[in-house]
C-alpha cells in the first residue's frame, strides 16, 4: 500500500504531493531523500553531474532510458527512520519508527512513494516490485498525457491533469486504473488543439477537452470503447537491440540481443488480431503485453490479441541462443567474436604518464593526452536483411559519446566526418557521425589538456589509472535488418469488417553498446 | 507545515494568470508565461475577492471561466491558505453538470469536512443524491467523496449508498464501493462490524469484473489482517486462479500473493496450480513475475517430499522441485534484469541473489548477464559484482575473474573493494576449479603493487589473509612481494593483513623478521589496534618458526604492548603470550595449549584416582611395575544386562530379588574376583566324571526371555570356608562355575549346567556366611520350551544343589 506520493523536480523541489490515507507522511522525507541523492551525485562526480545539467537544460542528451541518463541515484528502496523527520509525524508513523521510501528517476523527476512498514498498522505489506512498477506506470502515463519527455515543465504545465490522473490511478493507496487506454476514457488527455489555442490566446484553459468523458468503461481494461479511426492502420516494428561490451581491440567481452515488438494501432471497433511469425524458435523467453492471450501462444505459437488503441509494446523477447551463437549474441569464447559487430570502433587514448612498477617515466602534467578513434562499418553474415532491402550496408544515426576522466581539463578534438561537441562542464564529448557505410572511415583525433597540480597525484581517485578512462558509448541503427531473422509472416484481423493497412519493418540498433578503452 | 497540509491536495494551475485584481483578463490578451503564478501570489485579501467571484458563479455562463474560478480556490487550498470561509459558496456550486467542476468541489469538500463537520453534513444530501446519478462516473466520484469525508457521524448516511453501490450495474462504481468499505472500516470499526460487509465482500469475489475482485481481495486482506488476511478455501482459490488472466497486471499481484498462503489439497492440485500460473511468467510486469516465483516456491514446499516422509519414493523432494522452479524462472528473470529500468533491475538483482543462494549453479551459464555496464548506477554495479562471484564454476571462473579485474580500478572505491573481495571469495569457496586458487592468488599479489590505488592493494592484502587461512599451501606463491608491499600499504586493515601474512609465511620469507622488526621499532607510530594485534600475533607466530632471530624483538614488542594501555584486548593478549613464554621458552609448549581432549578422555577412565588430582595419566607418575592393571570384568556377562530378569515368585524374597536384579559386574569386587573358567571341567574330569556329561562350554549369553526362578533361604550344612569348597562339591553334580567371589558377609557364585536336551541353566548362588543359608536364582536358557517340563528340571536342579550343599 502506498501511503504518500511525491514528485520532485531535478533540483529537489516538491512538485506534486499526494496522501492517500489519513496519515500524512512528513514532507521532510523528501529532504532526506534529496540529501542522500545529492551525496551520491557529488561522490560520483563528473558524468552524473553533467547528466543532471543535461536533464535540467533539457538539451544535449535526450530520451528516457538513454544510456547517458546515468543519474547515479540512491538505491530505489530506502528505509527512512521517522525520528529523523523533524516536523511532527502522525501517531501511526511514530509507532512504527520507520517508513520505506521507493524512488524512481524518470526524465529528471524523482517519483517517491512512501510505504508503511511491513505489517498491519495502516495496511498490509506491499510487494516492493509492485510499488516500483507502479511508479513507472505513473511516469509512463504522464508521457502518454504530457508528451515525451514528461519532465519538470511538462508536469508543471499540467498540474491539474496530473492530480486527476493520480486520483484515478490510486484509490486509498492501491493501484486502481492503470491502463492508459482506460484512463483516457476517464480523463481526456490535453489535446493538441487546446495547447495551440492556449499558446496563441493565453486564454482560458482548454486542457480538458470539451467532450466530457463518456464514463463507459470497457471490459477490456487496456482498450477504450467506441474507438473510431477514419483510416484503419496498424504498424509493427520489430526492434532488436544489441547490448555489448567490446574491448579496445574490438573483441566482444559480452553481448546480448533483446528484441521487442512495438506496435501502433489505429484500428476502429474491437479488432481481434492474430500475428504469426516465420519461425518462433528464433526467439526465447517472450513476455507479452497483458492484451495477449498467453495460452494461445503456448499452444499454437501465434500472438492473439485485441490491441490497445495507440502505441504500445506488444512483446519482448531474447534472441535464442542457437541463433545467437552464430551471430552477435552470446558465445562461450569471446575471442571468436572478433569483428562480429557491424560497427567497429578502435580507440587509442593515452595521457602521457605511466604508473606502475617503473617510475622512470616521471609524470609530466604538461604533456597533453592523446586520443584517436577510428570507426568502420562492416557487413557481417549474422545480420539478416529484410527482402525489401537493397544496396550495401548503411548504418544510420551513428554517434559516439566519449566521457573523459575528471583530470582532463579540456579537449581539442577534430573529426573527419560529422561534428563533435565537447561539453566542458560535464567532460563529455559527443561525436555525431550520422550515416556510415563501408567505404567511409571516419576518424577522430585530438589532444587533451590535463589538470595540473599535485593534488591529482595525492588523490587516488583522480590519478590517471588505466582503468579510469570510462568506456565509450556508441549508438547506431540499421534499418530492415535483424539479428534473429524473426519476421511477421501474417497478421489477420477478425471481429471487424474493414481491411486495415498493415506495415511491418525490422530495425536493429544499439542498446547499451560500450567500447572499453584499455 | 505538516499540520496545514491538505489531505488531498490538488493545485490546479493551467489557466491564465489572474490579473492582480483577480478578474480574469479579457480574452485575447496575451497571458504571462504560465509560471506557478497561483503559488506565488498568496495574499490573504484575495480570499475575499474569490468570494466575490464565487458569488457570480451561479450567473456565469462560460464554463471555462467557471472552471478557472474553481481552480483558483483549489490552488489556494493546496498552498495551505485557509479558504474554508468559502465553504458555503463552494457548496452552492456542487449542483453542476460539469464533471470537472464537480470533481473540484468534491475535493474541496473532502479537505475541509473534518474541520467543518456541520457544513459538510449539509451537503451530504447532494452527495447521496449524486450517488444515484445516471452517469456511472458521477456515481463513483460522489461515492468516493462521500467515503472520504472522514466524519464518523456520517456513517449512517454512507452505509446505505455504499450497500447500493455494491450492486451497481457498473464496475467502476462497484470497485469504488468496495474501497469505500475499507474507508468506513478505518473510520469506525464498530459500525463496520454491525454492517457485516464481510460476507458481501466474499460473495463479490465472484464479480465478473476483475478490478472489483482485486479490490475485494485488497480490502478483505486489510480488514482481516489480524487473522492473517483473507480467509482462503479451495473453491475461492481455484476460482481466482482460473480467472487469473482477466486481471490487470497490478490486480494479478493481489491474487498471486494469496497463493503462498494456500495449502494445496494434494500434490496433483499443487502441480495444477503451477501449470495455471506458468503463463504469468510471460507478463512484462516484473512484480507479477516475481510473485509467481514466490507462489511456485511455496507450492514446491507444500507438495515436495521431505526427508523422513513415507511417501512414494519416486515423488520429487522439496529441493528437487525448488531447483526445477528456479530452472524454469531463470530465463524470464534474467531477461527482466537486463531489460528493465534501473530501479527494477536493482530489486530483481536482490531477488536473483537469493535464488542463486537457494540453488547454486543454475544461474552460472548466464554470468555474462551480470557483467557491469558503465551506465549502471552504483548500487546495481555493487549487486552485480557480488553475484558474479557466486556464479563461478570451473568453466566460468576464468572469464569472471578477468572481468572482475577490469573493475578494480574504477573511480568508485567501494566498487574496487567489492571486486577484489568477490575475486577472493571465488578462491575461498574453491568454486573456480583446479588452479584457480593459485591464479587468483597471483592476481591478488599483483594488486598489492598497485600503489596508485591504495584501497585496492589494501583490500587485496585482506583477501590474501583470508585466502591463506583457507588454503595454507599458497604461502609460497604470495610470499615474495609482502615485505615490499608493507612499505606502501597504509590502510590499517590492509597493513594488519600484511603483517599477519608475514607471520604466516615466515618460513619462506628470509627477511620477514627484519621487516617486522622495523615495524616493532616504530610501534609508537601505530595508532590502529588491529595493526598492533596483528603485529603481536605475527611476531609470536614467527618466533615459533624462527626462534633465534625473533626472540629479542619479541621481547621488546611484549614490553611495548603490555605497557600499551590503549586497548585492553591487546594488553591481555600480550600478557598471555608473555606468561606462556615465561613458563617455558620451548616452542613446543605452544602445543600444550592445543587440543587436550585425548588426555581428558583418558583421565575419565581413571576417575576417582590420583590421576584426576594430578591431571596426568597414572603411567606418568607411577613406576611401571607398580601399576595396577585396570581390567573390566567379566569380559562377558552371563546374565542379561537388563535388571528385570527375575519375576518375583514369593513376596518374601523381594529384597534378595532386588539385590539380584541390580547385580551387575560391579557387585563382584574386581580385586577379589577369582576367575574360575570352565577349565574346571577338566579338573572335574580328573575326578572321574565322563566328558560326555560335561557341558560343551559356557552357555551362549544371548538373552532369552525365559523366566528365572528364585529360591531363597536354603539351609546349608555349614558355612562354606571358601569358594573352592563350594565349587568342588557342586562340580561333582556337573554344576560348573563361571565366576565366584567372596564378600564380607557372603559368597557369590555364577554357575551353569547343561541338561541332556542341550539347554543350559544359569544359576546365581548367594551363600550367606552367618547363618549359613543359600539363595538361588535359576534361569533356563535354550533347551526345552515346555514350561512345565522346564520347571520340573529346575526343581530337580534345586534338589541337586540341596543335596550338595544343604543339610
Automatic annotation (TrEMBL), chain A:
GO terms for biological process: intracellular protein transport. It comes from the Eukaryota. Residues 231-516 form the MHD domain. One of its GO terms (cellular component) is endomembrane system. The keyword Transport applies. Keywords: Membrane, Protein transport, Transport. The keyword Membrane applies. This is MHD domain-containing protein. PROSITE patterns: MHD (PS51072). Pfam families: Adap_comp_sub (PF00928). CDD domains: AP-3_Mu3_Cterm, AP3_Mu_N. Belongs to the adaptor complexes medium subunit family. InterPro entries: Adaptor_comp_med_subunit (IPR050431), AP2_Mu_C_sf (IPR036168), Clathrin_mu (IPR001392), Longin-like_dom_sf (IPR011012), MHD (IPR028565). It is found in: Endomembrane system.
From TrEMBL, chain B:
Residues 13-30 have a biased composition (Pro residues). Residues 1-43 are annotated as: Disordered. SUPFAM superfamilies: ARM repeat. InterPro entries: AP_beta (IPR026739), ARM-like (IPR011989), ARM-type_fold (IPR016024), B-adaptin_app_sub_C (IPR015151), Clathrin/coatomer_adapt-like_N (IPR002553), TBP_dom_sf (IPR012295). Residues 1-12 have a biased composition (Low complexity). Residues 33-43 have a biased composition (Basic and acidic residues). It is found in: Endomembrane system. Pfam families: Adaptin_N, B2-adapt-app_C. Residues 714-780 form the Beta-adaptin appendage C-terminal subdomain domain. GO terms for biological process: protein transport. It comes from the Eukaryota. One of its GO terms (cellular component) is endomembrane system. Keywords: Membrane, Protein transport, Transport. Residues 47-584 form the Clathrin/coatomer adaptor adaptin-like N-terminal domain. Belongs to the adaptor complexes large subunit family. This is AP complex subunit beta.
Amino acid at each position: 500500500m502506498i501511503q504518500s506520493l511525491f514528485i520532485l523536480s531535478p533540483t529537489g523541489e516538491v512538485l506534486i504531493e499526494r496522501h492517500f490515507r489519513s496519515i500524512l507522511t512528513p514532507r521532510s522525507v523528501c529532504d532526506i531523500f534529496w540529501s542522500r541523492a545529492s551525496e551520491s551525485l557529488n561522490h560520483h562526480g563528473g558524468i552524473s553531474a553533467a547528466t543532471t545539467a543535461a536533464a535540467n537544460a533539457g538539451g544535449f542528451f535526450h530520451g528516457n532510458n538513454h544510456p547517458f541518463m546515468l543519474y547515479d541515484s540512491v538505491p530505489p528502496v530506502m528505509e527512512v527512520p521517522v525520528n529523523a523527520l523533524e516536523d511532527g509525524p502522525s501517531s501511526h508513523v511514530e509507532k512504527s519508527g520507520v517508513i520505506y521510501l521507493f524512488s524512481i528517476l524518470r526524465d529528471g523527476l524523482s517519483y517517491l512513494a512512501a510505504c508503511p512498514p511491513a505489517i498491519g498498522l495502516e495496511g498490509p505489506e506491499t510487494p516492493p516490485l509492485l510499488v516500483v512498477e507502479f511508479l513507472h506506470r505513473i511516469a509512463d502515463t504522464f508521457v502518454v498525457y504530457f508528451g515525451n519527455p514528461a519532465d519538470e515543465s511538462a508536469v508543471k504545465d499540467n498540474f491539474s491533469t496530473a492530480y486527476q490522473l493520480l486520483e484515478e490511478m490510486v484509490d486509498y493507496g492501491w493501484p486502481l486504473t492503470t491502463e492508459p487506454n482506460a484512463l483516457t476514457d476517464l480523463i481526456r488527455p490535453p489535446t493538441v488543439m487546446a495547447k495551440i489555442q492556449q499558446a496563441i490566446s493565453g486564454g482560458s484553459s482548454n486542457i480538458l477537452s470539451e467532450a466530457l468523458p463518456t464514463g463507459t468503461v470497457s471490459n477490456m481494461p487496456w482498450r477504450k470503447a467506441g474507438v473510431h479511426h477514419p483510416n484503419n492502420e496498424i504498424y509493427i516494428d520489430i526492434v532488436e537491440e544489441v547490448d555489448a561490451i567490446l574491448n579496445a581491440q574490438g573483441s566482444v567481452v559480452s553481448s546480448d540481443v533483446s528484441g521487442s515488438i512495438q506496435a501502433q494501432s489505429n484500428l476502429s471497433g474491437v479488432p481481434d488480431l492474430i500475428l504469426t511469425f516465420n519461425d518462433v524458435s528464433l526467439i526465447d523467453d517472450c513476455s507479452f503485453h497483458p492484451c495477449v492471450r498467453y495460452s494461445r501462444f503456448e499452444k499454437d505459437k501465434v500472438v492473439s490479441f485485441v490491441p490497445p488503441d495507440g502505441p504500445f509494446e506488444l512483446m519482448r523477447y531474447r534472441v535464442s541462443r542457437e541463433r545467437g551463437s552464430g551471430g552477435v549474441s552470446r558465445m562461450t569464447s569471446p575471442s571468436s567474436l572478433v569483428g562480429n559487430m557491424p560497427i567497429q570502433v578502435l580507440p587509442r587514448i593515452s595521457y602521457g604518464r605511466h604508473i606502475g612498477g617503473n617510475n622512470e617515466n616521471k609524470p609530466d602534467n604538461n604533456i597533453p593526452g592523446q586520443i584517436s578513434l577510428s570507426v568502420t562499418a562492416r557487413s557481417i553474415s549474422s545480420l539478416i536483411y529484410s527482402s525489401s532491402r537493397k544496396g550495401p550496408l548503411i548504418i544510420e544515426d551513428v554517434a559516439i559519446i566519449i566521457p573523459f576522466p575528471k583530470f582532463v581539463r579540456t579537449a581539442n578534438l577534430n573529426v573527419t566526418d560529422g561534428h563533435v561537441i565537447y561539453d566542458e562542464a560535464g567532460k563529455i564529448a559527443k561525436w555525431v557521425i550520422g550515416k556510415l557505410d563501408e567505404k567511409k572511415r571516419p576518424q577522430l583525433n585530438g589532444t587533451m589538456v590535463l589538470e595540473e597540480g599535485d593534488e591529482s597525484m595525492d588523490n587516488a581517485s583522480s590519478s590517471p589509472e588505466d582503468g579510469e578512462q570510462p568506456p565509450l558509448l556508441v549508438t547506431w541503427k540499421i534499418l530492415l535488418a535483424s539479428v534473429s531473422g524473426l519476421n511477421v509472416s501474417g497478421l489477420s484481423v477478425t471481429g471487424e469488417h474493414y481491411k486495415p493497412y498493415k506495415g511491418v519493418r525490422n530495425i536493429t540498433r544499439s542498446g547499451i553498446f560500450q567500447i572499453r578503452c584499455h | 507545515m505538516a499540520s496545514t497540509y491538505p489531505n488531498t491536495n490538488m493545485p490546479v494551475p493551467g489557466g491564465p494568470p489572474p490579473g492582480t485584481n483577480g478578474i480574469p483578463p479579457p480574452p485575447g490578451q496575451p497571458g504571462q508565461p504560465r509560471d506557478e503564478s497561483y503559488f506565488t501570489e498568496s495574499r490573504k485579501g484575495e480570499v475575499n475577492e474569490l468570494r466575490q467571484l464565487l458569488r457570480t458563479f451561479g450567473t456565469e455562463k462560460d464554463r471555462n471561466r467557471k472552471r478557472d474560478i474553481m481552480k483558483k480556490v483549489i490552488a489556494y487550498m493546496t498552498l495551505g491558505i485557509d479558504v474554508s470561509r468559502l465553504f458555503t459558496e463552494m457548496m452552492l456550486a456542487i449542483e453542476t453538470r460539469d464533471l470537472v467542476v464537480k470533481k473540484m468541489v468534491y475535493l474541496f469538500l473532502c479537505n475541509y469536512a473534518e474541520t467543518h463537520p456541520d457544513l459538510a453534513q449539509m451537503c451530504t444530501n447532494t452527495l447521496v443524491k449524486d450517488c444515484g446519478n445516471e452517469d456511472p462516473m458521477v456515481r463513483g466520484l460522489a461515492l468516493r467523496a462521500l467515503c472520504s469525508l472522514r466524519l464518523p457521524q456520517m456513517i449512517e448516511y454512507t452505509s446505505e449508498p455504499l450497500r447500493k453501490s455494491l450492486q451497481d450495474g457498473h464496475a467502476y462504481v462497484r470497485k469504488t464501493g468496495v474501497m469505500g468499505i475499507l474507508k468506513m472500516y478505518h473510520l469506525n470499526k464498530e459500525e463496520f462490524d454491525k454492517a457485516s460487509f464481510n460476507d458481501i465482500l466474499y460473495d463479490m469475489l465472484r464479480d465478473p469484473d476483475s478490478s472489483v475482485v482485486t479490490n475485494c481481495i485488497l480490502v478483505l486482506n486489510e480488514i482481516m489482517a489480524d487473522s492473517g488476511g483473507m480467509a482462503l478455501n479451495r473453491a475461492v482459490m481455484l476460482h481466482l486462479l482460473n480467472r487469473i488472466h482477466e486481471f490487470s497486471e497490478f490486480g494479478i499481484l493481489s491474487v498471486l500473493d494469496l497463493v503462498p498462503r494456500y495449502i494445496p489439497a494434494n500434490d496433483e492440485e499443487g502441480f495444477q496450480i503451477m501449470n495455471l500460473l506458468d503463463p504469468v511468467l510471460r507478463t512484462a510486469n516484473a512484480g507479477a513475475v516475481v510473485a509467481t516465483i514466490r507462489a511456485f516456491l511455496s507450492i514446491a514446499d507444500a507438495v515436495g517430499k521431505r526427508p523422513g516422509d513415507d511417501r512414494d519414493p519416486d515423488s520429487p523432494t522439496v529441493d528437487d522441485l525448488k531447483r526445477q522452479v528456479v530452472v524454469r524462472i531463470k530465463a524470464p528473470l534474467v531477461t527482466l534484469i537486463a531489460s528493465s529500468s534501473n530501479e527494477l533491475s536493482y530489486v530483481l538483482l536482490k531477488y536473483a541473489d537469493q535464488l542463486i543462494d537457494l540453488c547454486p549453479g543454475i544461474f552460472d551459464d548466464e554470468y555474462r548477464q551480470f557483467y557491469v555496464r558503465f551506465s549502471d548506477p552504483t548500487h546495481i554495479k555493487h549487486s552485480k559484482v557480488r553475484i558474479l562471484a557466486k556464479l563461478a564454476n570451473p568453466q566460468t571462473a576464468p572469464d569472471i575473474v578477468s572481468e572482475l579485474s577490469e573493475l578494480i580500478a574504477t573511480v568508485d572505491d567501494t566498487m574496487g573493494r567489492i571486486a577484489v573481495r568477490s575475486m577472493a571469495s571465488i578462491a575461498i569457496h574453491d568454486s573456480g576449479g583446479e588452479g584457480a586458487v593459485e591464479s587468483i592468488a597471483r592476481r591478488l599479489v599483483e594488486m598489492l603493487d598497485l600503489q596508485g590505488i591504495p584501497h585496492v592493494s589494501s583490500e587485496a592484502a585482506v583477501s590474501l589473509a583470508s585466502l591463506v587461512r583457507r588454503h595454507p599451501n599458497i604461502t609460497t606463491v604470495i610470499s615474495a612481494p609482502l615485505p615490499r608491499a608493507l612499505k606502501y600499504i597504509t590502510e590499517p586493515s590492509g597493513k594488519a593483513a600484511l603483517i599477519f601474512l608475514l607471520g604466516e609465511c615466515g618460513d619462506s620469507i628470509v627477511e620477514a623478521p627484519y621487516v617486522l622488526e622495523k615495524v616493532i621499532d616504530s610501534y609508537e607510530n601505530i595508532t590502529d589496534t588491529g595493526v598492533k594485534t596483528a603485529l603481536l600475533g605475527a611476531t609470536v607466530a614467527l618466533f615459533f618458526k624462527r626462534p633465534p632471530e625473533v626472540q629479542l624483538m619479541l621481547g621488546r614488542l611484549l614490553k611495548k604492548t603490555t605497557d600499551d594501555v590503549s586497548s585492553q584486548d591487546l594488553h591481555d593478549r600480550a600478557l598471555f603470550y608473555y606468561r606462556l613464554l615465561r613458563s617455558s621458552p620451548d616452542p613446543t609448549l605452544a602445543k600444550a595449549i592445543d587440543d587436550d581432549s585425548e588426555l581428558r578422555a583418558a583421565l575419565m577412565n581413571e576417575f576417582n584416582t590420583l590421576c584426576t588430582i594430578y591431571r596426568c595419566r597414572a603411567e606418568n607418575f607411577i613406576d611401571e611395575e607398580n601399576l595396577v592393571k585396570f581390567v573390566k570384568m567379566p569380559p562377558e556377562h552371563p546374565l542379561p544386562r537388563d535388571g528385570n530378569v527375575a519375576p518375583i515368585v514369593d513376596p518374601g524374597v523381594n529384597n534378595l530379588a532386588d539385590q539380584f536384579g541390580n547385580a551387575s559386574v560391579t557387585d563382584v569386587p574386581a580385586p577379589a574376583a577369582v576367575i574360575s573358567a570352565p577349565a574346571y571341567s577338566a579338573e572335574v574330569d580328573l575326578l572321574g566324571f565322563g566328558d560326555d556329561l560335561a557341558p560343551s562350554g559356557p552357555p551362549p549369553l544371548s538373552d532369552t526371555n525365559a523366566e528365572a526362578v528364585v529360591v531363597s533361604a536354603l539351609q546349608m550344612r555349614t558355612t562354606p570356608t571358601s569358594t573352592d569348597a563350594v565349587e568342588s562339591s557342586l562340580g561333582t553334580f556337573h554344576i560348573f562355575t563361571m565366576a565366584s567371589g567372596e564378600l564380607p558377609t557372603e559368597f557369590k557364585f555364577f554357575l551353569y549346567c547343561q541338561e541332556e536336551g542341550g539347554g543350559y541353566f544359569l544359576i546365581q548362588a548367594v551363600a550367606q556366611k552367618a547363618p549359613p543359608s543359600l539363595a538361588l536364582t535359576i534361569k533356563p536358557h535354550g533347551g526345552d520350551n515346555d514350561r512345565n517340563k522346564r520347571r520340573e528340571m529346575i526343581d530337580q536342579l534345586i534338589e541337586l544343589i540341596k543335596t550338595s550343599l544343604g543339610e
